[in-house]
Amino acid sequence: MKRFFFLPVIFIFLNKNSNAQKQVTKLQQVWVGYINQTRFSTKWGMWGDLQFYTKQDLFSNIYENIVTAGIVYYINNNTKLTAGYSYAHLYPTDNLAQPEHRPWQQVMWHSNYSRLHLVQWFRLEERFRHKISNGELVDGYNFNYRARYNFLLIAALSKTAFAPNTISFVLNNELFINFGNQIVNNYFDQNRFFIGFSYHTNKHDNLQFGYLNVFQELAAGNQYRSINAVRVIYFHNLDLRK
């Protein structure tokens, strides 16, 4: 299991070094989300989620909102492929909403033990962000690819592991890497580190809540953003097989 922790830890260390050397803007935000996975048959299912982020000082203005839908193909019960599309609104200023179209492809795999669940996924995104000039939207889109690697660990804290109305410990890290012809300075996009708890509402669903740190490199290459956030997400899983 040590190898799984190496990548998140090394990037947290690098982020702290960057914090000391670069110009860093600090924000306090709230991230709220709903993620649904519905399984229709042995092989097919659906992914959907809604996410909303405030901008600063916890509850001041809007930072970003995202709507996502995808089709899931189950290789087996522990491994699945997803092709999806996300529509995002970014708010670089209070009066400007920047649309983004984001097709994506993902492979996710689970490793389940009696008191421990591990979930990993690798996602490739194609990002089409509406161009901005002089604080206004103009014709055309900027484009780049972004790769994401996510690691999620859930450890049972109650005697009856993952039973309804019990609590588990959650550790999550996700690394984002940019690439493409229009990426010059910020190949490292961001790292998201989350630590918190999961309340199991039933044997399938859970509510995660805790502390999130986002460390992001901006396009200029010498400016960074450090976000300290309260994150609350409800994970809703439905199995419609007979």
Give descriptors for this structure.
242 residues; mainly beta; Porin; eleven-stranded mixed barrel; 8% helix; 72% strand; globular; disordered N terminus
Q: What's the gist of this structure?
A:
The protein is mostly beta strands. It is built from 1 helix and 11 strands. Helix content is 8%, strand content 72%.
Describe the structure in your own words.
8% of the residues lie in helices and 72% in strands. The chain has an eleven-stranded mixed barrel with strand order 1-2-3-4-5-6-7-8-9-10-11. It has a single domain (2-239), classed as monomeric porin ompg (Porin, Beta Barrel), CATH 2.40.160.40. The chain has one helix at 2-21, and strands at 23-39, 44-56, 60-76, 79-93, 96-112, 116-133, 136-156, 166-179, 188-200, 206-217, 223-239. The chain is built from one helix and eleven strands, in the order H-E-E-E-E-E-E-E-E-E-E-E. The protein has 242 residues and is mainly beta.
